[in-house]
Amino acid sequence: MNKFISTEALYELFISCKQKITTDTRKLEKDAIFFALKGDNFDANSFAQKAIDGGCAYAIVDEENVCNNKTILLVKNVLESLQDLAKYHRQQLKIPVIGITGSNGKTTNKELIHAVLSRKYNTYATKGNLNNHIGVPLTLLAITNYHEIAIVEMGANHQGEIAMLCELTDPDYGLITNIGKAHLEGFGGEEGVRKGKSELYQHLRKKNGRIFINGDDEVLQKLSNGLSKIVYGEKPAFDVYGKLLSTTEFVEFKWSTNGKELDNEPLIKTNMFGHYNFINLICAVCIGHYFGVDRTEINNALQEYVPEMNRSQVKKTDLNSVILDAYNANPSSMSLAITNFKNQAFKRKMVILGDMFELGEYSYKEHYNILSQLNKSDIERIILVGSQFFELKGKFPEYLFFLNTEHLNVYLLAGGIVDFTVLIKGSRGMKLEKIVDYL
Fold first, then answer.
1. Which of 385, 417, 284, 55 is closest to 268 using CA atoms?
2. Which pTM value belongs to this model?
3. Could you give the 3-state DSSP secondary structure of residue 353?
4. What is the CB neighbour count within 10 angstroms for residue 375?
């Protein structure tokens, strides 16, 4: 019978393989270690030999019958082995690690902070949205001795998940962007979301770590009692404060520290749309300032940053202007996006909203609330797409409803949508970015 390889022995192989890890036989890398993960609809144990034949140095499996040579190594559970390896690697790192979670804006904050800190440090940050029980270990294992600081994004859809990810990541600093109505089904309501997200604060209390916190957020302030804080927001009393000066298409603002006057500070002109992104920008300023990044470098980083991945992207088509914020959506983020859009002085406004997922028993109520929010606005055309919104068709006859994006595209192809500014927002699974070509 094969012996289970220990975490320590596996770590030696990991270092000898120059920290190359893969979990996908479609993306094999020479001399990497392949982890044969299992999912609801797949079992990668059967691909172990394929990984070896494809150039991997080792394959890690948890089914003994596939261990047919010395390069296929047995563990009790592949996922747990990956997580244990990541935790062990984190323990070897001697650099500051910033953990980020929250209901909205995790990835945007991570990208902005990365842009700022990279002006001074060799910084590693979570790639894309690898922020779950598999993505966080892969993120940690990608950090090398060349990196000077790391930013790890942590997502969750149920209580206890952030606590588990904190055990792996062991952050020295923490940021909760906000706590809103996200993943209500898994968390069991808003109180469950608060408990789940605040697990990052609980970890930092035990470690005597520090947090970066929006001083204007009353929910976070209540949850952060007793923690060492670096505070940002819109009040001069905070460690870093800013003033929003314009959101006409893009955010423009000034910032200062410790109550110093703003008048003589330079105006920061960004490529970020929406009032809600202002606090994300101030957060990045705060963290950069704390870690000693030069003021000019902070400003340049934020002015040069261009959002990607369908997050608050402003796109110009031949006929219209499109604000594409379709990476994801929950009731809190969608409400903020609508409020911001309603307050803009665009001549002709149009919204296309897609279903919000993972709301469970709260879905009907939250979708109804969003449509109620759109009442009495100067938005000329309101379009809803998806089965959840479609259920409300009879209650809001003044709006246009489509069961799916295919039906919506037929409508858009008919034309007549010209000189609009269009806000597009919905959950990732709606894939609303695909309708931009029809506008």
1. 284
2. 0.89
3. strand
4. 11
What distances in angstroms separate CA 253 from CA 189, 236, 277, 327, one per listed residue? 35, 14, 11, 25
Supply the DSSP symbol for 395.
G
CA 265 – CA 49 distance, rounded (Å): 61
Give the DSSP letter string of 246-297. Answer: E-SSS-EEEEEETT--STTSPPEE-S--STHHHHHHHHHHHHHHHTT--HHH
For residue 388, give the nearest of 363, 352, 369, 362 by alpha carbon.
363
Domains, the chain, ordered by start: 7-77 (3.40.1390.10), 93-304 (3.40.1190.10), 313-438 (3.90.190.20)
CA distance 134 to 132: 5
Q: What is the DSSP string of 32-82?
A: PEEE--B-SS-BGGGGHHHHHHTT-SEEEES-GGG--STTEEE-S-HHHHH
Tens digit of pLDDT for each residue in 321-360? 999 988 888 898 899 899 889 888 888 999 999 999 988 8
- Tokens representing 336 are 């903020």
Q: What gap in Å lies between CA 320 and CA 275, rounded to an integer?
A: 22
CA 329 to CA 386: how far, in whole Å?
13
Res. 312 pLDDT band, cuts 50 70 90 = confident
CB atoms within 10 A of CB 309: 15
**Cα 163 to Cα 154: distance, rounded to the nearest angstrom:** 10
Size of the chain in residues = 439
CA distance 200 to 193: 12
Q: How far apart are CA 435 and CA 422, in angstroms?
A: 11
Question: pLDDT tens, 104-130?
Answer: 888 999 999 999 999 999 999 999 889
Amino acid at 326: A
The helix (H) or strand (E) run that includes residue 363 is helix 363-373
Q: What residue type is 395 in one-letter code? A: K
* Dist. CA 298–CA 300, nearest whole Å: 6
Integer angstrom CA distances of residue 123 from 39, 144, 145: 32, 10, 11
